[in-house]
Amino acid sequence: MAKYVYTFGAARAEGRAGMKDLLGGKGANLAEMCHLGIPVPAGFTITTEVCTYYYEHGGTYPQGLREDVEKALAFMAEVMEARFGDPDNPLLVSVRSGARQSMPGMMETVLNVGLCSSTIPGMVRRTGNERFVYDSYRRLIMMYADVVMEKAAGIEPAEGEAIRVQLEHLMDARKKEKGVTADTDLTADDLKALCDAFRRRVEEVLGKPFPDDPMDQLWGAIGAVFQSWNGKRAVQYRRIEGIPDEWGTAVNVQAMVFGNMGERSATGVGFTRNPATGENSFYGEWLPNAQGEDVVAGIRTPYAINEASKNDANRHLPTLEEAMPEAYQELLEVRNRLERHYRDMQDIEFTVQEGRVWLLQTRTGKRNGPAAVRMAVDMVDEGLIDKAEAVIRVKPNQLDELLHPMVDPAAERSARPLARGLPAGPGGATGRIVLTPERAEERAAAGETVILVRIETSPEDVHGMHVAEAIVTAKGGMTSHAALVARGWGKTCVVGCGALEIDVAAGTVTVGDTVLREGDVITVNGTKGVLYAGELPLIVLDPERHEHLARFLGFCDELRRLGVRTNADRPEDAAQARRFGAEGIGLCRTEHMFFGGERIRAMREMILAETPEERARALEKLLPYQKEDFKGIFRAMEGLPVTVRLLDPPLHEFVPHEDAQIRELAETMGKDPEAVRTRVAQLREMNPMLGHRGCRLGISYPEITRMQARAVLEAAAELRKEGVDARPEIMVPLVGHVAELQDQKRLILEVAEEVKRATGVDDLPFLVGTMVEVPRAALTAGEIASEAEFFSFGTNDLTQMTCGFSRDDAGSFLPVYVERGIYPKDPFQSIDQEGVGQLVALGTERGRAARPDLKVGVCGEHGGDPDSIAFFHRVGLDYVSCSPFRVPIARLAAAQAAVSETA
Ligand code: ADP
Ligand code: MG
Ligand code: MG
């Protein structure tokens, strides 16, 4: 017969830490603490299997459970020298939930079970403390009525009429009547009267008397804990955290110890290290003469357990170390023992009963990003864990927290959000509203910090986006233009703030009744996707912690196999990425080199040219600009490879579409407006994503490819002469057929010969390769690799073309797909491993078969996504490339992939 009940107590236990599936986290760790000789009140755990049984059998228990519980109660009586239900010498118990994975605050616990008219006198006699007994009794009535008689019974009270709230009102009224504020100021007589009033109210409201039999109370509480697994909050929490419904909760029945027995008693919670900073010092809060939840419930201001834990609210209050030095010492020893044993920061609950310390819970403690990094590094130094373990301990998103200023969470708690949207770029920012990119540049040049607020953004806004501290859009999703650009620059960004009504002409942003004007200050939390009117303080990482970060990322580099490059188009971004550890550029887009001032003029001249000669002349004007751009980037990446992608977007993105602008353009170029209009109309495409772009441009207009190749290679040659080690890799985009690459490669090699001759630089190392982003290229990778010296999977387009999802239009149906689980995740954010991933794997395999030393990487949004990175590691790519601010995250994710492979 299955074993349903596991006892623990007096340095013995039938369970252990590894049995979380069966005993829940709380039960398993209580057992483990017993094995360690840590003082834990005796008790037993009813397994999660009983919960499963309970739900499969209409709320009944398996045969034999009652007998097992009786036996376990007898064990507790022996260890605790008091018996549950005994009128002379009663033992009280708590009945506690405990799932495999902690679900903080989601399920229920009842304390002081077993107090009733037959046991109260015995309890008073034994303790000589009537006040304490009635304090415990009123707590039992409150919790039991709430958890067992109301919630578990499925009673849905109206707002403000929950039994718990009603009983709290009774208690408040009593305190008012007595002219006191603290619960602890109520006397035994007050509490006694309150208990009577409580029981009357319970019966009145819930239609049943408060149970007066210990066994009835016990089984009522056990059933209620099982019921709480399917409580509304718990079910919602499981949906969010992805916890399966079948897991069920265990129930822990445990002898009560009392922190509310007077001034030599206390209750508290602690962390074995500081969870906010990671500092290796015991951290916690406590309250004298209190029970259970009092510390976290916020009824009284909790005291600090030691100097290091003090804050402004409790600086004047005594520490546990001062008030109960011996208990504190004992607790400190427990803390040390727990850390040595679990080799990780623990979150503990303790109670001191008349000077004696008891532990009630331990579990791995939650921590923020900076703390996670610091603890991981410190624990390696302390010899608690190895580097591989350290690397696994930090979540990729926690690194993100370290790299951006954040809105101060304390300030945020008391601020009223103005609007919500999607968290497209992490971190916090505060600045003045600007509604156009021109205004952004103007105000930024005048030294203001600005936040660009737009309905949505387009490539023409990029200059304004660059100078803005943060970007906010009313429309758009996580892969909208604003989101992509913001991620690239590590800018704070919130997109899809539907509540914003933006009136550029009037210079206003309206949200409900609030009207903000251009120039007003707002605060943006891009990590959560929230906007606030006015300025909230930001907190920035202190440099001391960078030391830990650098060492931590060093561990990652030792362990990873995947290389990490960056997507960067400008020298500043390249330099930033290099500081973050990028080992080269995996994607340098060149389109921005055609925008702005003189350049766009020349570009338009080129587009409107009627003969190849005219076109070549226009391109000649662009050459010096591009060459300078490349020099800047090659310098920033000296000694490291830089993959330059030839012009990719369709030409219509470079010409104006409005009539007035077209006329103006025609005028400045001395052309007939009608001819210009016709040319612009010609460029318009039904489906630009599948239109005249990528290498198709370079094939129709070889002058473009020649000019770009020349700019790249002359820049490299001239730098070589100066002794700068430039390593260009020229990448031809959107190749689907080997002949396309052959065509473009021939041009590039011709130009290379010309450049060598002209500059006299013979030793000019460079590679020619291709972006693999058309499914046909992946399928024919063998042939393509015979021409390409490297592949870079452009997984954005590859996803678009493999799934047949237009990147620009997917916003209208993809969210629904993800919600319904048709695709588990947005395939533009995390690579679709079964589909698109197959093409990556197959393309790599066929490519390498044809050319064993083929370098294979990936550029595109997926290069910075941890799950995708793990996939690219498994497929055996050489490197991933991602935006500068994702580089540290990619280093970590690559290391984690390597570590979990060997594990
Ligand atoms: P949660 O999972 O919500 O933290 P717990 O089961 O841990 O719920 O209990 C709630 C509070 O009651 C905690 O502060 C805990 O320390 C306290 N508590 C639980 N059991 C006992 C007990 N046997 N003696 C004293 N305090 C207890
Ligand atoms: Mg707890
Ligand atoms: Mg592409």
What does this structure look like?
The chain has 903 residues and is an alpha/beta fold. The protein is 46% helix and 17% strand. It is built from 35 helices and 34 strands. The strands form 7 sheets. The protein has an 8-stranded mixed sheet. An 8-stranded parallel β-barrel has the order 27-28-29-30-31-32-33-34, surrounded by 8 helices. Helix 5 (130-151) packs antiparallel against helix 6, helix 20 crosses helix 35 (887-902) and helix 30 (781-787) crosses helix 33 (836-850). The mean pLDDT is 93. It binds adenosine-5'-diphosphate and magnesium ion (2 copies). Adenosine-5'-diphosphate binds next to strand 6, strand 7, strand 8, strand 12 and strand 13.
Search tags:
binds adenosine-5'-diphosphate; binds magnesium ion; elongated; 903 residues; 8-stranded mixed beta sheet; alpha/beta; 34 strands; 8-stranded parallel β-barrel
Percentage of residues in strands = 15-25%
The percent of residues in helical segments reads 40-55%
Annotation, overall tally of beta strands: 34
Poorly predicted parts: none
What is Rg? Answer: 34 Å
Q: Structural class of the helices, strands and pairings? A: alpha/beta
- Determine the number of helices (DSSP H or I, runs of at least 4 residues): 35
**Straight-line distance between termini:** 35 Å
Overall average residue pLDDT: 93
Strand order of the largest sheet: 15-25-24-17-18-19-20-16
The rough form would be described as: elongated
Bound molecules: adenosine-5'-diphosphate, magnesium ion
**Sheet with the most strands, sense and barrel status:** 8 strands, mixed
